[in-house]
Amino acid sequence: MPELPEVETTVRGLATVLDGQVIARVQMNRADLRRPFPVDLAQALTGARVTGMGRRAKYGLIHTDRARTMVFHLGMSGRWRIDPEDIGKHDHLVLETGEGRVLALNDARRFGSVDLVDSDALDAWRPFAALGPEPLGDGLTAKYLAAAFKDRIAAVKLLLLDQRIVAGLGNIYVCEALNRAGIHPEREGGKVSRKALDRLVPLIREVLNEAIAAGGSTLRDYVQPDGELGYFAKDWRVYGREGEACTCGGTVLRIAQGGRSSFFCAKCQK
To answer: Which of 76, 110, 72 is nearest to 90 (CA)?
Structure first.
């Protein structure tokens, strides 16, 4: 599933074509993705001007001058294609700007979603209402995590993946950040020291910003809107590297946590 850096990269790519432009045409080539398209999607967007782009957790936001925001989620394999030569069978939503640029939301597995939300009610929208702070925002601090983890016996890896604690963190980048911080993924959240959390928070931001700068990680079907594959995967230290050497000289191990694979080094992560 595309994680925060992939969604951020997608939003930034779309903004170069869409921000400030009028949406001249909206075409839906099927009735639904994971759930039906909003019934008034075409009416709400046709003729609307895009006033800004954004991201909340793993959702992309397209704001318009009609005080409506189109919220999209890429699901497992969704991606936006910019000015495709042809509209394919998996291009389920197509937007055309007044300048004639074409953007196609392609989702072969149809696990993504598209919603319309009143812009001034975004924070109260049900999927957003319970989300924790953004990992790249000022709300994520060591003090905040210490309070959120207090007396918790759940593994720190699972707590960081809880969107109610931190919004947008996914499996890849939690594995990477914990490795850089020297924290074992199975350590109880309540037993992670404040000193360790002081290390962890800037390293979460570091790994996310590196991935964004690199264009996102190549994972399954993910590509940037311009068709370029992300390439942060070549810099993964532990994710997907079971049996290989860690930078400390130890060996990368894999365990299952919460139905996901956790990759770590027992030598340097305590």
So the answer is: 110
Instruction: Pull the structure tokens for residue 151.
Output: 């007396």
Pick the catalytic residue: 187, 205, 260, 267? Answer: 260
Element (H, E) at 225: none
The pLDDT of residue 215 is 82
CA distances from residue 215 to 9, 12, 210, 229, 233 in whole angstroms, order as listed: 6, 10, 9, 7, 10
pLDDT at 234 over 90: no
Strand partners, 63: 52, 69
Half-sphere exposure of 254 (CA within 13 A, CB side): 13
Catalytic residue among 6, 8, 55, 58: 58
Which CA distances in Å does 255 have to 159, 160, 165? 16, 16, 23
Residue 77, pLDDT score: 87
Q: In sequence order, what are the residues at sequence separation of 6 or more whose Cβ sits closer than 8 angstroms to the Cβ of residue 8?
A: 55, 212, 216
